[in-house]
Amino acid sequence: QPVRLAIMADEKRFFASDEYEALHKRIISGQQLTKQEWTDVEQMLKTVYPGFTIQLRGLLPMSELEYQTCLLIKLRIQPKDIASVLIRDVSTISTVRSRLYNKVFGKKGSTKDWDNFILSIGA
Description:
- It is globular and about 35 Å long.
- The chain has 123 residues and is mainly alpha-helical.
- The mean pLDDT is 92.
- It has 8 helices and no strands.
């Protein structure tokens, strides 16, 4: 319980930070992120969820699109904004999410199932 409360406090600080706000605004405006900005996103997530990227990479080999989609889900970015920043259709992002669920769990699952799973990692 104390660990969960500490994570919740870290999350609250993170999602209220100027750094997150600036990133969020860039993403929802549809601006592509540079290679350095993707590295910064990973660093931000490691600060709040220390084991997240390691657990994510350990699930299965992922394409860059799959990995970046998962990072953005963890940042609580909406699918339409994920599609925009990754320059894909929303349907492509939905397909990525449901296929990842199937690959990891060996059964059909909804996009929401995948999102909930990603949100639970490192939490």
